[in-house]
Design a protein that fits this description.
Blueprint lengths: L1 H8 L4 E4 L13 E9 L1 H6 L5 E8 L2 E9 L4 E6 L4 E3 L2 E3 L11 E5 H5 L12 E5 L2 H9 L5 E4 L3 E2 H13 L3 E4 L13 E2 L3 E4 L1 H11 L1
Parallel strand pairs: 1-2, 8-9, 8-10
Antiparallel strand pairs: 2-3, 3-4, 4-5, 5-6, 6-7, 10-14, 11-13, 12-14
Helix pairs in contact: 4-5
Amino acid sequence: YLKNYFTEKYPDFGWLSEETRDSAQRLSKERVWVVDPLDGTKEFVEGVPNFAVSIGLVENGEPILGVIYNPILKDLYTAVKGCGMYFNGEKTSLCQNDQLSEMNILNSRSETKKGLWEPYKSNFKELVPFGSIALKLAMVAANQADFVGSLQPKNEWDICAGHCLINESGGKLITTENKKIVYNKKNTLTTPGLVAGNSKAVNNFIKLLK
């Protein structure tokens, strides 16, 4: 449904989604929809309400629109480049604390089970395992959590909408190698991981990883 709606309404835009076959045609498009109809499939199957619909729009590799919706809690996170970040219609900005030891960090349930976060446990106030990277980014952008990190690769459709939300709430999202994330690439995987929050906290975490 989403693909039909957006491609009919915006025929000149490209399309990239986890649920549909990729086409090289998008690579020549200035604007591309980057969509995950269900981010957090494991949580959806398990009946855990940590999943979301994620809709992003990219212009020349940069996210310019982000919409993330949790259909269970009916929480809507929206942002347009230059217009700010909104949670259920109210403008928000993210946590400005940059002391990692005083911050909670949303991290992956699967990464936690694998023990990937054990080396960093003492550096944060609390590690909070949580499903859906899109929803984690949205919650940090809305100041419902302090910080988010992933130590494993993510696809563009997982993070594109959330990246716009983070940007518009005054934050920063980069790879764990301190590199900028560009969208609508041939290889859609962002490696090796990512981190998002306010700039100082992100920089502090990057130093910690080194």
